[in-house]
């Protein structure tokens, strides 16, 4: 459960990245990071990450490419429209994505891990298909592939720190749980309030994220994302230039029996400028079975607070609700 935080901690994760093969537990800097991760995941469910090693040119490059895409004429964007038959990959126009039944004032391109048809049986068929990227600007697909691969690696390293913070065994999120993450990514554009024909609509209504760990790459000059604390106050996630904003999703919330919080958040762009953000969702394996682990049950009162779910079923149910009505 999120506490009464009134700001979001900033964590330099570089000590976790110094050796790609393993984490050096004798390094006091590593222990310091782990301690900060624990506090952030337990009390806030959100934290900024710096010292992540992703080049600024790539971080800004993907936002600029997204911004240029959203400037294209409607017909051009609709050439890569998302539907159930594209595996929920592609473009969604303004007000077509719903949160709690209300239309969101954002447009987006959604992408998921690509996989060979048949890999995941009948359930996998819902998500089959290549990601749909525009032909313009040139090199779009290549840049997004690079970005996805880089963020997947970074997420894995941060998750190693999270596992230490949870005092879990090193392979806690390897193998069948999250050894082969079914990650996804959204390029999101939110018009500023000045230009909006729908002044009451939020960019994204209040929600929690679905998976393990989310890394948000957001425009530096607009504060739009807000995070709910236990006093029901919306705390602004003011952009920290060069840092990703990270948060915990429902699956980590379930596995840790609520010890680590999937915190509710929303997006309201009340500035006059168009805002671009790119959340990267590091998720469990497609077929992962997710239920409170015994170790965390013991630490949180001994009772399971959540039902068992299969990640792919949970995801499909969420996505279908996004496009209802
Ligand atoms: N892949 C993730 N986590 N996307 C979060 C989107 C949240 C808004 C969506 N309309 C909803 O209601 O879930
Ligand atoms: O746009 C943002 O800053 C966050 C987006 C978000 O919360 C989401 O897509 O789940
Ligand atoms: Fe979110």
From TrEMBL:
Highest taxon of the lineage: Eukaryota
One Gene Ontology molecular-function label: oxidoreductase activity
Residue span(s) of domain Fe2OG dioxygenase: 181-284
InterPro entries (UniProt xref): DIOX_N, IPNS-like_FE2OG_OXY, IPNS-like_sf, Iron_ascorbate_oxido_reductase, Oxoglu/Fe-dep_dioxygenase_dom
Isomerase listed as a keyword: no
Pfam families: 2OG-FeII_Oxy, DIOX_N
UniProt keyword terms in alphabetical order: Iron, Metal-binding, Oxidoreductase
Family from the record: Belongs to the iron/ascorbate-dependent oxidoreductase family.
Name recorded for this polypeptide: Fe2OG dioxygenase domain-containing protein
């Amino acid at each position: 459960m999120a506490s009464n935080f009134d700001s979001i901690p900033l964590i330099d994760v570089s000590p976790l990245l110094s050796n790609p093969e393993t984490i050096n537990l004798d390094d006091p800097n590593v222990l310091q990071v782990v301690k900060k991760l624990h506090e952030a995941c337990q009390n806030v469910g959100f934290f900024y990450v710096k010292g992540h090693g992703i080049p600024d040119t790539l971080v800004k490059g993907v936002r600029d490419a997204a911004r240029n895409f959203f400037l294209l004429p409607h017909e051009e964007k609709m050439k890569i429209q998302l539907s159930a038959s594209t595996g929920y990959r592609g473009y969604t126009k303004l007000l077509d994505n719903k949160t709690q039944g209300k239309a969101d004032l954002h447009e987006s391109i959604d992408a998921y891990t690509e996989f060979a048809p048949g890999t995941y049986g009948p359930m996998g068929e819902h998500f089959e298909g290549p990601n749909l990227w525009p032909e313009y600007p040139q090199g779009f697909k290549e840049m997004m592939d690079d970005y996805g691969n880089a963020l997947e690696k970074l997420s894995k390293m941060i998750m190693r720190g999270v596992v230490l913070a949870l005092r879990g065994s090193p392979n806690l999120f390897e193998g069948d749980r999250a050894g082969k993450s079914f990650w996804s990514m959204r390029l999101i554009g939110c018009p500023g309030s000045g230009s909006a024909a729908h002044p009451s609509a939020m960019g994204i209504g209040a929600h929690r994220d679905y998976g393990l760990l989310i890394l948000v790459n957001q425009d530096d000059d607009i504060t739009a994302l807000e995070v709910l604390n236990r006093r029901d106050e919306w705390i602004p996630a003011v952009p920290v230039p060069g840092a990703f904003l990270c948060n915990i999703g429902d699956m980590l919330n379930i596995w840790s029996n609520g010890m680590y919080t999937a915190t509710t958040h929303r997006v309201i762009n009340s500035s006059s400028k168009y805002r671009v953000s790119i959340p990267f969702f590091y998720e469990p394996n497609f077929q992962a079975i997710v239920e409170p682990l015994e170790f965390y049950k013991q630490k949180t009162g001994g009772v399971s607070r959540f039902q068992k779910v299969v990640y792919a079923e949970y995801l499909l149910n969420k996505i279908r609700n996004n496009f209802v009505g």
